[in-house]
Amino acid sequence: MKIQPPNNAVKPMHYFLAAGASLLSGLCWYLGNGLSGEYWYLVWFAPVFSLITTYYFSPKVSFWLAFGSYFLGRLSWFAYLHTVVSFLPAIAITLALPYVYARIVVKSGNVVLTNNSWLTVFAYPVLWTAFEYLLFLLSPDGSATSLAYSQAGVLPLIQVASLTGISGITFLISLAPSLIAVCWFTFERKRKWFTALTVLAAVLFAFSFVFGSYRINHRSVSEERSIKTGLVAMQRRLHYNSEQKTISQIKSVTETYAREISKLAGIGAKVVLLPETVIQLTKQNEQSVISVFSKTAKENRIYIIAGFTNYLQAQARNSALIFDSNGNIANRYDKVHLVAGHERQFAPGSKPGTFQIGSLNAGIAICKDLDFPRYIREYGKEKIDLLFVPAYDFVVDDWMHSRMAILRGVENGFAIIRTARDGRLTISNYLGEALFERDNSSGEKTNLLGTVSSFHKETLFSIAGDWLGAVSLIIVLIYAFRNSKSVGK
Question: Contact, 398 vs 374, CB < 8 A?
Fold first, then answer.
């Protein structure tokens, strides 16, 4: 049965149909925007029902139908958020995002109903892209809730991030359901927009996937600038405070890592990357810990990058030390973006970290830093060839958080080497391909060895930043201003 438009009587059966469609939409959101990326394609269709209902029901009914569907979808993240930010903030996030989504859906429907133009198909993608852009700028979690990450496994699609940042991915996956909904509206209201909408879809989506395929098929590879990297994360229990209470315990953990580093060096690794905060570094144990890593680096003629809980200053820091192949400390990096609540004991760092590995320009950032595209763009502007990322995940977000990092490499044109406790060990190239990958979420000892071509690939995003997000926000503000003036009249 067809749902009737608002100027006709809406029967109880129509509400049941709409509620059923809302539940189906919620299921699409739940599976498609989950933490695994397994059902990424459902995100392309999830908003369709919510958008269509705005053409038939009152704004109030449409709002609650959209709110309910997105709320169901956000429940796939609730257990994870509860672990990361605690119960009340998890509730707040789980309610706030559906509220904004529902407001955007209702506004998008209003734009379609009150403007006789096929251009109204852009209302939903522009509003959602503008909203995400504001989150990137203002949220303490940066881009973590972006819909774009659900598509991280779709290699041709994510290449658009090199042009627009992840805002381009968000825009495209929001445009698709808007096209379907507006095409439905076109047939229902006998508007002559179908040809224009078809051409629009063909041009935008063909360009995106042709561009992505071309970039993948014409990839740059350099044997001369390839580097073999080892990644290792020891058993989870070795990182517990109970296992690092005394100087002798900390030295034992350090030596355990040193032995694994030497094994990786023995099979060809030129750099070995450890996870975030694996060793507690204090004034009492500084000399013994540093000497072990320094000696291991010098004896094996390799670089070692290790994450420390750094108690050397008055206030602790989440740090990474880089030991060069002569055993010297080449740089120290302090994590800039700290996890709210979990890392309140740390003082934040203030700047990106870079260093040289022979002729390669390398960078260092830590875990949460990679959730902030604007910050990682600074490394792109430095034209680094590869970025090393010590990390510490929360088990259930192992795929999602590793892909957030990988997409920073696509945006800025460099390889990403990431070692995560309770997460994944990944080596990815500038295209966002996970060339080598192992799962450490079980908490057992895990190592990985792989070679990646390391060079800087210039991207529009690293030059111009998130221009699409900014343009979307400007369009929304201009439309809102013009609307307010017309209402005033």
Answer: no
